[in-house]
Structures are given as C-alpha cells and as structure tokens.
Write a sequence for this structure.
C-alpha cells in the first residue's frame, strides 16, 4: 500500500478470497495487471441464511487488500433494493475503516455490484465503472422487470460500461439508448500462450472443459445428444470431458450418457491444472462448449491460442468477440440438430480452421490480450484523479 498510488475499490462476487469456495480468477487476473494502483477488494458471497454472514478483513499484501464479505440476500432477487441498501451500508463501513477515499469504484457486475456503486456515488460522490457480465444481468432483466429503471440509472451514472459479455451489449443499448457515457469491451484475460505447434490432432477427438456441477447450464445434455446423433454417420467421433465433478453429479451424467447410448464415446479426465489442459488441447480436432447464458468463457480463448478451433453458442459465451475471425463454428443455443452438424463439420474442417488460426494468430492475440483494454482503464483513472470529468473522451480525441 502506498498513499501516492490511486486507490481502486473493487466490488466483486468473483474473487478467489480465503473464505469463499471456488470461483473464476477473471477479476484477479484483471487486478494483477494493474500494479500501479492500490486495490481494496470487497469479495462478495451471497448468504441465504442471515446467520451465516461474515466480514473478514485481511492485511494488505503489496498493493492489495481483500475484505471477504458474506452478505445476506434472498434468492431470486427478492426485496432486491432493500438488500442492496444493506449491502451498501456494509461496504461503506469497510471504507470508513480504511479511512482512504477511492479514486474509482470498479463494480464487476451490473445488477448487484453496480447497484451498490450507484448508491456509493450518491452517498459519497465516488465515481464508478461497471462491468456487464450477461449471465446475472440476463436473469434480472427477464425475471425482475420492475428493476429495469434502477439498472438504467446504474448504466447512466457509470463513467464507463465494460462489456465482458459482448453478446449482452445489444440488449443494454436497445433498452437504454443514449444512456452510456462511454463503453468498451473487456474480455477476461488469460496467461500469454506461445504459438502452437504444427502436429496433427486426432481428427475424431473433441474436448470440452467445464465445472460439471453446472453441466446443464454448460449445455452438456445437448452436447451428449448431439454426439449420439453425429455418431450415426461418424461412429468414431469421441468426446473427452475435463472438469471438476462429485459422485452424485457424476452418476447423473453417467445415466444421461447411457440413455443416449454413447458411454463408450465419452471419457472423463477429471480436474486438471490449467497448464496441463493447455498442453493437451492441441491433440484434439476441436474444443466444444455450448453453454447457455455464459458470461464469457476463458477456455475458448485458451483453445484458440493453443491453435484449436472452437464450437460455441451464439448469443452466449464468447459470441460478439469473434467478428472477422475464422476460428470455429457458432450454433444456436439448445439446437441439438445444429450442434450435431457442427460436431461433424468441426471434425471435417479442423485442418482448415487450424491453418486460419495460425495465419491470423497475431490478430486473435490482439483481440484478447489485455494491453489496449487496460490502457483505456488507465486513462480513465488518470482523468478522474486529475479532477477532470469526461477525461477519457478528451484524451482519446487528442491521440
């Protein structure tokens, strides 16, 4: 911690703090690439039982401090405004204890963290940015229409909206035309990957990576049904599944596979370290993940940067980042017939896709590497710390 560095307050439900269970490292990867700032991270976890709430503050380590906050909120967004006021009170107490004013609040989702950031702006005059991660926002927009006005105020008051879910941007812009001061894409960042080798993959082998505890949302039932359908004309087609499971969940999945008659075509490899997953990826003809309502999906990028074509869902996951890139096949969510054709086409077209990925590797890398996105964020912080509203637009106009 240094008083000379601007302080960023991060409000996020996706940070691997010492208290909560497994979560994506996406927000941590973002913070890791901003060493010139101090970071106060309020790591949220919703608790349905008010007796299980907690607030644990950990010591500063270098330029960051984590406060793990288990807050009470009812499921399904019930009493959402009231629950968010309670959460804002808790975050404000954390700030009071820190006795240091943030230069910027980074809200890492719109429907929860963004509501808190809006309240902090009204109470304390703090500027904020808001990330849009379509999975949660989509649920709130569909099932809590009475909150759309509140979300519109979050959009309107943000210094910038950062779209992690590019596929959700059209919904925001259609619902709130002209509300946004500034907007930018912000893909989840992964570790740099070296140019893939040229060894030939197994043309009949496909792979997917997922947390099997959410296998329905990840589209595994449709993928298994599509594999069974595709094997009627390509009986050698196989699927490897990498990911965390448990005995109860695995028994459900095994029964699903047995009903589709593809037990001999699906192999479960369990949990593998990230480096081991990346090492294995080039051996496959394609990477398949047809999740519904997926925020982004870092594994898509890891596959492409390993030289492996991808099969993905349109209107979900990585869709919206791939314009102009010949890296794979998009299929409608839940369409088993289209997915079965996609599996066959992926196997047939793997050599051509891999060549296109190699030829366009620099463009793909630029599309998903952090430099340009972080430069935008740094300019915004620089403008706010110098006391100039609208600084990003003026700086960019001068470049």
């Amino acid at each position: 911690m240094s008083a000379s560095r601007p302080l960023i307050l991060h409000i996020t439900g996706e940070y691997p703090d010492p208290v909560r269970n497994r979560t994506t490292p996406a927000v941590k990867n973002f913070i890791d690439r901003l060493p010139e700032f101090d970071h106060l991270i309020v790591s949220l976890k919703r608790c349905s039982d008010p007796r299980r709430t907690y607030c644990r503050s950990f010591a500063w380590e270098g330029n960051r401090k984590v406060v793990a906050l288990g807050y009470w909120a009812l499921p399904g967004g019930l009493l959402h405004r009231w629950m968010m006021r309670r959460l804002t009170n808790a975050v404000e107490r954390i700030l009071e204890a820190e006795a240091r004013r943030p230069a910027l609040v980074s809200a890492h989702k719109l429907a929860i963290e963004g509501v808190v950031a809006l309240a902090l702006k009204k109470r304390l005059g703090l500027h904020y940015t808001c990330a849009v991660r379509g999975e949660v926002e989509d649920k709130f927009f569909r099932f809590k229409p009475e909150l759309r006005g509140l979300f519109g105020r979050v959009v309107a008051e943000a210094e910038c909206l950062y779209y992690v879910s590019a596929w959700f941007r059209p919904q925001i812009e259609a619902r709130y035309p002209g509300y946004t001061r500034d907007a930018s894409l912000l893909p989840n960042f992964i570790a740099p990957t070296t140019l893939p080798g040229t060894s030939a993959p197994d043309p009949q082998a496909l792979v997917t990576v997922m947390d099997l505890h959410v296998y329905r949302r990840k589209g595994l039932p449709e993928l298994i049904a599509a594999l069974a359908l595709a094997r009627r004309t390509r009986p050698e087609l196989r699927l490897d599944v990498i990911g965390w499971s448990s005995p109860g969940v695995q028994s459900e999945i095994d029964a699903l596979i047995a009903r589709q008659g593809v037990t001999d075509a699906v192999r479960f490899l369990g949990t593998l370290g990230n480096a081991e997953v990346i090492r294995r990826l080039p051996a496959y003809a394609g990477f398949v993940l047809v999740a519904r309502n997926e925020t982004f999906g870092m594994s898509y990028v890891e596959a492409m940067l390993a030289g492996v074509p991808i099969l993905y869902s349109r209107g979900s996951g990585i869709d919206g980042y791939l314009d102009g890139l010949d890296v794979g096949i998009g299929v409608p969510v839940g369409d088993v017939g289209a997915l079965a054709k996609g599996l066959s086409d992926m196997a047939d077209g793997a050599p051509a896709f891999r060549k296109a990925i190699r030829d366009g590797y620099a463009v793909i890398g630029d599309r998903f590497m952090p430099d340009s996105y972080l430069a935008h964020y740094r300019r915004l912080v620089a403008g706010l710390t110098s006391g100039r509203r609208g600084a990003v637009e003026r700086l960019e106009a001068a470049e």
